[in-house]
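Predict structure. Chain length: 547.
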Amino acid sequence: MTGLLADTTYEAFEEVVKRSPDKPALIFLGEEYTFSEVHEMVLKLAASLYQIGVEKQEKVIVYLYNLPQTILAWLALQRLEAVPVMVAPVYTAYDIRYMANDVGAKIILCMDTNVSYVMDIFDEAPIRKVIVTSMTDLLPRWKNFIGKGFGRVPSGKIPKGKEFISFRELLKDGRPFSLPPFQGKAEDTAVMLYTGGTTGFPKGVPLSGGLFLYRIDEWAKAAEAVVLLGEGISLLSAPLYHVIGQMDGLTPLLITGEPLIVMPRVVLDAMFDHIQRYTVTRMFAVPAMYRMILEHDRLDYYDLSSLRYCGTGGDVLPTEVANRWHKKFGIPLYQGYGATELCAAISLSYAKDGIPPEGSAGKISPGSKFKLVDPDTLEPVPPGEPGELLATSPYAVKSYWNKPEETEKCFFEIDGEVWYRTKDIVEIDKEHWLYFRDRSVDLIKHKGYRIAAAEVERVLQEHPAVIAASVVGIPDEKVGERIKAFVVLKEDIKGISGFELNKWCKERLAPYKVPQYIEFRDMLPKSKVGKFLRRELREEERRKVSE
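Prediction complete.
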């Protein structure tokens, strides 16, 4: 059993450093950094951030790819009892402006390749300091030179001005002796992630350190029957701005004390090479990734036999993919079910339970509580019948950040405990295996991301030519669902094409939120009170797929 020896994320990290100081902690583009080296860099960075004014519980935006710098920043902010706000590096100025204002962020860490988006919002957001890093900041100079000289590494420049600070300089100049005493508590917010909002605006989800530690402890326990504690090697394939990436990326550093392979972006051949070279034992990815692996035409060129625990979540795992994977590699895909608001998985497939039952999405984790209710009345459903899942756990999320209306819709107090309303229909059997049945039509699952239909609709309706828009997910076996928008143009508008609306969306939405299809209509189905009926459009599209 893993067994937590700390109450906070930073104390958990220090316990692992004491246990495994000379063991590799991070592996990145061929370079290895031991736990003691990572610890030293974290303290230096924390000291520099403290000197530029980062305060306790201050929200700091981390706008980076999967890099060692991302993890160093996360840990340094934990040491300062501050809150990293994890943001996708593919977001544009439109998204960054909203999030910076939403959390009141004064400081942002960004890539040299996306710093221009931050510059675009300087006059419209509270940001006053911009810490800029490149993909090769922690690599030896010769690798930096070769990577940039041969155009293998995207790069940009740090703008001039006192507002812009080099990450590398902060790391060099930090003086750990200047740090204040650590006084963090389990109930303090440790990290904030954004998730889709039914009103069209992303919602900040504040995750406490106690909840985070509880979840990653279970994450580690799920694999311990096939990967002995401390003897595994993990490959991070999910982005660190996603709750799955948070779990998979921080579990080795805060719980198991095992090496973590970090890749700035997932390229399948590079992933296969790393699994083979470092004998990776565990990974976690969305179902679409496993399908891509199985269909890769060079898969058989690599030896992936070291894999022992391959977890999946973020979307429904097709039975066909699960069966093909088991036949190919002789190990199952272990599925879990969760949400950002639950701090990832409320149910996991524990290796000690053997091959998970077909169609299941894991077993409810010890310590988590659940209720199945009628979605219309919120009354309990009879045992054995499907219902909407309500869930809670130790140190549960109690509200969204700065969103009282959304909070009122999704969080309820029952018998003195706060429960999250998932809006997903599931079944849970006597042994607590969870079976997913259906989800809210307001959310679209594309490549493991939860995309709020309302957010895409809002962006489309901001176009001067659009009078109405309704967005749905179309089933797709490779990516879960594809995004389709139905658009009504104003009567006097002519010559507007789907290409133009698609370009409009690309300038305002992250790439994975941009519709793959746009269909123009004269009108959209509405309810008696005038609400657009996405359900009818979704059913119409599903009928087309089944025909």
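Summary: DSSP finds 16 helices and 27 strands in the chain.
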